[in-house]
Specification:
The chain is an alpha/beta fold. The protein folds into two domains: about 140 residues, 3-Layer(aba) Sandwich (Rossmann fold); about 130 residues, Rossmann fold (3-Layer(aba) Sandwich). About 40% of the residues lie in helices and about 20% in strands. The chain is built from eleven helices and twelve strands. A ten-stranded mixed β-sheet has the order 3-2-1-4-5-12-11-6-7-10, with helices on both faces. A two-stranded antiparallel sheet has the order 8-9. Strand 8 and strand 9 form a beta hairpin. Helix 9 runs parallel beside helix 11. The longest helix has 23 residues.
Length: about 300
């Protein structure tokens, strides 16, 4: 049985104590029902260094105990909105990304579902991004609800039925398809997309690639696994083409692996994955390819 992990912010020192984290809740509720999943609601007390340095350690412990109790009350309120599903509550201390990775290592078939404000450029370099750090270090799929994703109506049932999967001819990119199975999705309508860049020659290793034939081959394999499949070949820059196609084909989700540029260039200019995350009006399911080292 899958386990959906939902990180939530609970920090009364901030004007908006829950930030953007609650934007993931409609998808978490819908996926919990769709996948018959258990749910873990998690918050981490990200304690400022100045507070930890308090001379009065007894007072510090009391402050942290009060904060923990307040967070637990909040999580209990959120848990009641999950329509009777099995919900566990976790209040951790320390770095939120580390807490998410730890919980994911302890549950069955984890699927992290989280919202992100998705910092860019130098802001991400200096301040970091919890979502990107989680994706970098975690083994399980991570579903990210970005800022451009419209909030569903309060009464709407969020269900994933149409998934766009961008492919580039590599087995690495195809691992996004495995992530759908790992997350427990069945009976999906999968849209396979191949984007050709103007003037670029499509090659994989030493062989030329015919996108239509390649997508037809992948589609045949997916149909054997019970998926409904359609294919599309577009021309343009991959991030823009992926975002546009997801909108045109009414995809509920974009599924991708996280390979791409690395290091400072990725931070400042953005990999394909990050550009899609920033531009998409659709949640994005990310999976780190098997065998790719973390860090």
């Amino acid at each position: 049985m899958p386990t959906i992990i939902v990180p939530l912010l609970c920090d009364r020192t901030k004007a908006d104590p829950h930030g953007v984290s609650e934007r993931a809740l409609p998808w978490a509720r819908g996926l919990a029902k769709q996948l018959a999943a258990e749910v873990v609601l998690l918050t981490a007390l990200d304690i400022p260094p100045g507070l930890l340095a308090m001379a009065d350690q007894a007072l510090l412990r009391q402050l942290l105990d009060d904060w923990r109790a307040e967070c637990l009350t909040y999580l209990e309120e959120v848990a009641r909105t999950f329509d009777g599903r099995v919900v566990s509550l976790e209040v951790d201390e320390g770095d939120p990304a580390s807490a998410i990775v730890r919980i994911a290592s302890q549950v069955n078939e984890p699927l992290v579902t989280m919202a992100s404000h998705l910092r860019t450029g130098l802001s991400r370099l200096v301040l970091g991004s919890i979502a990107m750090r989680v994706v970098s270090f975690i083994e399980c799929p991570v579903l990210i609800v970005g800022q451009r994703v419209p909030a569903p109506l309060e009464t709407a049932a969020v269900e994933v039925s149409r998934v766009l999967v961008p492919l580039d001819g590599s087995s690495l990119a195809e691992q996004a398809l495995d992530a759908l199975s790992i997350a427990g999705f069945t009976g999906l309508h999968v849209i396979l997309l191949y984007v050709t860049e103007p003037g670029a020659r499509d090659r994989v290793g030493e062989r030329d690639l015919r996108p239509d034939a390649y997508l037809a081959d992948v589609a045949a394999r997916l149909k054997e696994r019970g998926f409904t499949v359609e294919t599309s070949v577009r021309e343009g820059k991959p991030p823009a083409a992926i975002v546009a196609t997801a909108g045109e084909m009414r995809a509920d989700l974009i599924a991708m692996t996280t390979h791409g540029r690395s290091g400072l260039r990725a931070v400042l200019m953005g990999s394909t994955v990050e550009q899609v995350l920033h531009g998409a009006n659709t949640p994005v399911l990310l999976a780190r390819p098997r065998g790719e080292s973390s860090g």
